[in-house]
Design a protein that fits this description.
The complex is a heterodimer.
Chain A (H helix, E strand, L loop, with lengths): L35 H9 L4 H27 L24 H13 L7 H19 L6 H21 L17 H26 L4 H16 L2 H15 L8 H27 L2 H9 L4 H31 L11 H9 L9 H36 L1
Chain B lengths: L6 H33 L31 H34 L4 H15 L3 H13 L9 E3 L3 E4 L2 E4 L1 E4 L3 H29 L5 H19 L4 E4 L2 E2 L4 E2 L2 E3 L1 H28 L2 H9 L4 H31 L3 H4 L4 H13 L2 H30 L5
Antiparallel strand pairs in B: 1-2, 2-3, 3-8, 4-5, 6-7
Helix pairs in contact in B: 2-3, 2-7, 2-11, 3-7, 4-7, 5-6, 7-9, 8-9, 9-12, 11-12
Classes of the chains: A mainly alpha, B alpha+beta.
C-alpha cells in the first residue's frame, strides 16, 4: 500500500519532506504469545497467579465430580423395570445409579394424575391447543396476531374448560377436579395465572396511576398488601378464608380457590411491572396523544399501552417464570400438582429404592428447567430485538 | 354538551360506583362470614391467644413447653424462628451472591462459565423443588447416628442434623463482649474522624489497619487477661445417640441451604447488573486522574455500583424472608408453619390466624420499603 500524496505535491518532489516514507513498512507479525491457542489460554484461563490457581482448582473439581455424575446418570442407571426390584442393591448389582425405570413406569401418572384412563386423550388435545396458542402468540412473525389474541385469551380458556372438566351435552363426561393431577394441573394453574394476571395487572397499574383518589387508593392497598405477604399465606387465605366469605350454597371448588389465590397474587406483581413500563414512557407521548384530541381510552389503547407493554415484554415473561415456579406451592391447599405427583410416587412402597427420590427430583428439575429456560431465552431474544430497534 | 363529557362528573360517577361495589362486597363478605362462623360454631376474637397451646415445637429460641405455654408463646417462637433463618440466610446469601456475581464477570472463562450455569440452573428451578431435594434427597439420606460423618472441630453430620460444639461462656465473658462492642464503636468513631480530617486537610489515615486492630486486639486481650472464660461442650458419639453440644436440625439446614442457594443466584444477577451499570468512562477517568486500580474500584466503581445494587438487593432480602414460609414443606417450625399450620388447625379461627400472620409479614415488608425509600431519596443522583 502506498501513501497518498498530499494534493499539489508531485510524486518524487516532496520539497523538504524527504523523511516521509512513500511506502508502508511491512507489518510485523504479532508475537507468537499473542496468537493462536496459547494466547487464548493465556487470556482466558491463566491471566495471573490467582486465575491460574482457580483454573487448576476447577479442572480438578470437574475431574472429581463429572465422571461420577455421568456414572450416576447414565452408566449405572437402571432404564427398565416395573417395581423396586429393578433399582435395589443386590449381590451382583452393587452400584445403582439413577432409577429411570421409575420415571418411565410412572410417567403417565406424573402427566395426568388420577384423570380417568379413557378420558386422557382430552388432556392431550388440551396440550396441543395450548402449544398452538403459545406459538401463535409468541412467534414474532406469525400472521394475524389479532386472531391469535382472541384464540389465546377467549377461545382457549373456554375450550379448555369444556374439554377438561367435561360437558355432558357434548358427550364428554364430567371429570371432577379432585381427579385432576400431575403436570396437567401445573400447566392449567400456570395458564390461568398467565391469562388472568396480565389484564388484571394492567387495570391495577392504570388504577394506581390514575387521578381518581378512590381508585388509586384501592389499587395501592391491593398491590402493596399482596406483594408484602408470602404466596403461602395468600393461598391459605383463598383456601380457608374465602369459603367463609361466600354464602353456604356457592362454596367454591378447591382448585378454583387456589386459582383465585394464584391469579390475585400474580396480578399484583404484574401491576408493578406494567407500572414501570408506563413510567418509562416519555411524558411527550401522553401530551402528544392528548393534543391530537384522543380520549383517555383511545390514548391508552392506541398510544400508551402498545409502547409500554412492548418495552415490558422481558419483565412480563420474567414474572411468568416466577408464577410458573410458584405454582408448585398449590400443594399446600391440597392440589395434586406435578411436584406432588412425584412426591407421592417417591414414597410409594412399590418403588421404595435408594435412588428413587433423587431420580424423581432430577426428572422434575428437567421439566421445570426446560420450561423456565425456554421462557427466559424468549425474553432475552425479545430484549435483543428491541435493542436493535432502539439503536437507530 | 352533555354533563357526561365533563371529566369531573365522569370521575365522580365512576369513583362512586367503585366505592359502592367494594362496599357491597365487603358488606356481603362480613355478613356471610358471621353467618358461616355462627353456623360452624367457630369462636371469634383473640380469646385463644392466652389459652394453652398443648403441642410441641421442635426448635425454640425461648422457653416453650408443650403443657404450660400458650398460643401467644407459640406465635413468638414461630416469629423468632422465622427471623433466625431469615437473618442467617441473608448474611450467607449476600456473601455467596456477591462472590458468584463477581465470578460471573471474571476474565477466566471457567469461573465465569460455572457462575453463569449456577445462576441459570438455580433461578430456573422452583424453590420448593430445591428445598425438597435438600431435605429428602440429601440431609435425610445421610447415614444414621452410628455411621455419622466426623467433621473438623469435633462436629458430626448425620440424618438427625449437624452436631457442633456448644460455647459455654464462663464468669467474666461479658467483659470480653463489652470490650468488643466498645472497640466497634471506637472503630466507627475513628472512621468518621478520619473522613472529616481528610475532607479538611487532605491527609489520609490508615483506616483499614486501625479498624482491623480494634476489632481483634481489645477483645482478645481481655479474653487472655481473664484466663479464657469460654469453654466448649463437645458432642460425643455414643452407641445410639450423640450427647452434648448443640444440634442444627436437618429441617433448619435444608431450609437454610435452599434459601441461601436460591437467593444467592438472584443476588448474583443484581450485583452483576450493578457493576455493569457503572460506565467504562468512570474507570478511564479515574485512571486518567492517576488512581491505582484498587483505589479506582474502592472509590469510584463500588460507590456507584452500590447505588444501583442496594434497592433490588433489599427486595431480594424481603423475598428470602417471605420465602422462609416454605418451611411448612420441610417441617421447620417458622411462623407460617406454627401459626397457619398447627394453631389454625386447633382453633379453626381462620380469619384471625391468617390475618395475624399476614400482618407480621406485611409489617416487615412495608417497614423495609419505607427504609428503602428514605435511603433512595438520600442517595439518589441529584439531577436538574
Amino acid at each position: 500500500m502506498t501513501v497518498t500524496e498530499p494534493p499539489g505535491v508531485a510524486p518524487g518532489n516532496r520539497g523538504n519532506a524527504d523523511f516521509v516514507r512513500s511506502a508502508m513498512a511491512p507489518a510485523a507479525k504479532p508475537p507468537s504469545s499473542e496468537v493462536g491457542a496459547i494466547a487464548w489460554l493465556r487470556h482466558n484461563l491463566f491471566t495471573g497467579p490467582l486465575n491460574t490457581l482457580l483454573t487448576i482448582g476447577l479442572v480438578l473439581l470437574g475431574y472429581w465430580t463429572i465422571p461420577p455424575l455421568v456414572d450416576y446418570l447414565f452408566i449405572d442407571a437402571v432404564w427398565t423395570g416395573s417395581d423396586r426390584e429393578a433399582c435395589i442393591y443386590t449381590a451382583e448389582r452393587t452400584k445403582v445409579g439413577a432409577c429411570w425405570a421409575f420415571v418411565v413406569d410412572r410417567a403417565a401418572f406424573f402427566t395426568y394424575g388420577f384423570y380417568p384412563l379413557a378420558e386422557r386423550w382430552r388432556i392431550d388435545v388440551f396440550f396441543v391447543l395450548l402449544v398452538i396458542g403459545i406459538v401463535w402468540l409468541l412467534h414474532l412473525r406469525a400472521p394475524r396476531k389479532d386472531l391469535a389474541a382472541i384464540y389465546g385469551f377467549v377461545f382457549l380458556p373456554v375450550a379448555s374448560f369444556l374439554l377438561l372438566s367435561g360437558t355432558p351435552s357434548l358427550g364428554l363426561p364430567t371429570v371432577p377436579t379432585n381427579l385432576w393431577g400431575g403436570m396437567m394441573v401445573s400447566v392449567v394453574v400456570s395458564a390461568v395465572g398467565i391469562v388472568v394476571s396480565l389484564p388484571l395487572g394492567i387495570l391495577l397499574a392504570l388504577g394506581r396511576r390514575s387521578n381518581m383518589p378512590a381508585a388509586k387508593l384501592f389499587c395501592v392497598i391491593f398491590i402493596e398488601f399482596v406483594r408484602g405477604v408470602p404466596l403461602i399465606t395468600v393461598l391459605f387465605m383463598a383456601s380457608v378464608m374465602l369459603p367463609l366469605f361466600v354464602p353456604d350454597y356457592m362454596q367454591p371448588d378447591k382448585l378454583l380457590r387456589a386459582l383465585v389465590g394464584i391469579a390475585l397474587f400474580a396480578s399484583a406483581y404484574m401491576a408493578e411491572v406494567v407500572r414501570a413500563g408506563l413510567q418509562a414512557l416519555p411524558k411527550g407521548q401522553y401530551e402528544g396523544a392528548m393534543s391530537l384530541g384522543l380520549g383517555w381510552g383511545q390514548m391508552m389503547r392506541l398510544i400508551i399501552l402498545p409502547q409500554a407493554l412492548k418495552i415490558t415484554i422481558p419483565n412480563i415473561v420474567n414474572t411468568y417464570i416466577g408464577l410458573f415456579k410458584d405454582t408448585t406451592l398449590v400443594v399446600i391447599v391440597g392440589i395434586f400438582d406435578f411436584l406432588k405427583a412425584i412426591e407421592a410416587s417417591r414414597i410409594d412402597p412399590t418403588w421404595a429404592a435408594p435412588t428413587v427420590s433423587t431420580t424423581g427430583y432430577i426428572y422434575a428439575s428437567i421439566f421445570y428447567f426446560f420450561c423456565c429456560y425456554a421462557m427466559s431465552a424468549y425474553a432475552r431474544s425479545v430484549e435483543r430485538r428491541l435493542a436493535v430497534a432502539d439503536k437507530r | 354538551m352533555s354533563p357526561w363529557n365533563d371529566p369531573r362528573v365522569r370521575s365522580f360517577v365512576f369513583q362512586g360506583f367503585l366505592i359502592l361495589v367494594i362496599g357491597f362486597l365487603i358488606y356481603e363478605a362480613v355478613d356471610n362470614a358471621s353467618d358461616n362462623l355462627r353456623r360452624q360454631r367457630i369462636a371469634t376474637g383473640l380469646g385463644f391467644w392466652d389459652s394453652p397451646a398443648g403441642f410441641p415445637i421442635s426448635q425454640s429460641m425461648i422457653f416453650y413447653s408443650e403443657t404450660s405455654s400458650s398460643y401467644g408463646d407459640a406465635f413468638l417462637v414461630g416469629l423468632l424462628n422465622t427471623l433466625l433463618v431469615a437473618a442467617i440466610g441473608i448474611v450467607l446469601a449476600t456473601v455467596l451472591g456477591f462472590t458468584v456475581g463477581i465470578a460471573r464477570l471474571s476474565k477466566n472463562i471457567l469461573v465465569a462459565g460455572i457462575a453463569r450455569w449456577y445462576i441459570e440452573i438455580i433461578r430456573n428451578l422452583p424453590l420448593l423443588l430445591q428445598l425438597l431435594f435438600w431435605y429428602n434427597a440429601v440431609l435425610k439420606a445421610l447415614p444414621g447416628v452410628r455411621e455419622s460423618a466426623a467433621l473438623p472441630f469435633s462436629s458430626f453430620l448425620n440424618n438427625r442434623g449437624l452436631f457442633m460444639p456448644k460455647p459455654l461462656p464462663g464468669a467474666g465473658f461479658d467483659y470480653v463482649l463489652i470490650a468488643f462492642f466498645v472497640a466497634v464503636a471506637a472503630a466507627i468513631g475513628f472512621r468518621i474522624w478520619a473522613r472529616r480530617r481528610q475532607e479538611r486537610t487532605g491527609l489520609q489515615a490508615p483506616v483499614g489497619s486501625v479498624t482491623l486492630a480494634l476489632l481483634i486486639l481489645p477483645a482478645s486481650l481481655v479474653y487472655v487477661a481473664l484466663g479464657g472464660p469460654l469453654t466448649f461442650d463437645v458432642p460425643t458419639a455414643g452407641r445410639f445417640n450423640i450427647t452434648g453440644g448443640m444440634v442444627l436440625q436437618p429441617e433448619f439446614l435444608a431450609l437454610l441451604f435452599g434459601l441461601v442457594i436460591y437467593t444467592a443466584a438472584f443476588i448474583a444477577e443484581v450485583v452483576r447488573a450493578g457493576i455493569l451499570a457503572v460506565s467504562r468512562g468512570q474507570t478511564e477517568a479515574a485512571f486518567a486522574l492517576g488512581l491505582r486500580p484498587n483505589l479506582t474500584t474502592k472509590l469510584v466503581i463500588v460507590p456507584q455500583a452500590m447505588r444501583v445494587i442496594i434497592p433490588p438487593l433489599t427486595s431480594q432480602y424481603l423475598n428470602l424472608t417471605k420465602n422462609s414460609s416454605l418451611a411448612v414443606f420441610v417441617g421447620y417450625p417458622d411462623l407460617a408453619n406454627v401459626f397457619t399450620g398447627t394453631v389454625l388447625n386447633q382453633t379453626g379461627q381462620a380469619i384471625e390466624v391468617v390475618g395475624i400472620t399476614m400482618l407480621v409479614y406485611l409489617t416487615i415488608s412495608l417497614g423495609t420499603s419505607a427504609l428503602m425509600n428514605w435511603y433512595n431519596s438520600r442517595k439518589a443522583l441529584v439531577e436538574r
